[in-house]
Amino acid sequence: MQGDGIRVLIVGGGVAGLATVAALRGWGATVDVVERAPGPTDSGTGIYLTGNATRMLDVLGLRESVADVAVEITRQRSANQRGRRLFDIDVATLWQGVGPCVSLPRAQLHRALLDGVGDAPIRWGRQPVALVQEGDQVAVEFDDGSTGRYDLVLGADGVNSTVRRLTFDGQAARDLGQYAYRWVAPRVDDEPVWSVQLGRGKQFLTIPISADQVYCYYNDGPVADRPDWRDELGATFTEPVATMLKALDYDDRTLHAGPNQEVVLDSWSRGPVLLVGDAAHATSPNMAQGAAMALEDAVVLASSLVTADSVAEALRGYEVRRRPRTNWVLSQTHRRDKATGLPPALRDVVMRRLGEQMFRSNYGPLFAQP
């Protein structure tokens, strides 16, 4: 099917939305994008892209622009809360033939994607307030009072999706019992290593995202926004925790806090309305697959639209193709969360003996093309 004469609305100008714009270039459809944020932002923390994510950036013609501003991560290191090593993974070897693992400031990734879609029309500060299916089309009303009719509406608007709320009976994301803090601190070493310390049901992670910055992530367990979380973090984990916390004493503007959530739906489409990325299948961040799944969604959706005879057929084929992969990621994030909740002595024994094997098995199916 060619896209000539087809009107597509993409709701969301983040990773999922912009990747879909890039994937649909050349298909022939008229593509509109709305994003509720007032414009691009330089705020945010960091993001880690595994090899299956950078492979999709390559397919979309965006890998070089991202690589120019990213740090290539060659090793992942896991330790207990006292800093004693449990296991290391050579991720450069693990993902060889798929793509490099890289990390960068989230704003830099967004900028690279924006540059990659060029002059795609994005209406900033806008979102739908009503979506009504009329035959094979969707009538859309926006929050500025304007309206439009579309043959395909894509909800790429994240875990708290407006499209999902309007079209999928208000189905909300569900909390995972994890409250997380994220911030950026000065980088203290030159080693390109993703490093995590594991407490019981808690984790502290650092990832270098530039020559002079490191992304810090702390999962504090189920209690939201405890006033003394910094003191407990410093007392529970060893260095570089204390050094990373000092960065917040000088400047806490990069600090972001909130619950980790997941989205599980029986179907991702309602007529010609389809959810993609976190709007459809958000998971715990412990596999670092949020952006990867969104990028894969974009490429597979474009392929499905080209090979199908109708939009309806394309959406059915897309979901059949994507479900096994996203379900795998969901199941593996649950397994990982359970493993980190084990009593520390038992967890340390299991991780030392089986950690590398478990890690490889978590990602095994993702080495193949989506």
TrEMBL record:
<keyword id="KW-0560">Oxidoreductase</keyword>
<feature type="domain" description="FAD-binding">
    <location>
        <begin position="7"/>
        <end position="330"/>
    </location>
</feature>
<dbReference type="GO" id="GO:0071949">
    <property type="term" value="F:FAD binding"/>
</dbReference>
<keyword id="KW-0503">Monooxygenase</keyword>
<dbReference type="InterPro" id="IPR002938">
    <property type="entry name" value="FAD-bd"/>
</dbReference>
<dbReference type="InterPro" id="IPR036188">
    <property type="entry name" value="FAD/NAD-bd_sf"/>
</dbReference>
<dbReference type="Pfam" id="PF01494">
    <property type="entry name" value="FAD_binding_3"/>
</dbReference>
<dbReference type="GO" id="GO:0004497">
    <property type="term" value="F:monooxygenase activity"/>
</dbReference>
<protein>
    <submittedName>
        <fullName>2-polyprenyl-6-methoxyphenol hydroxylase-like FAD-dependent oxidoreductase</fullName>
    </submittedName>
</protein>
<dbReference type="InterPro" id="IPR050493">
    <property type="entry name" value="FAD-dep_Monooxygenase_BioMet"/>
</dbReference>
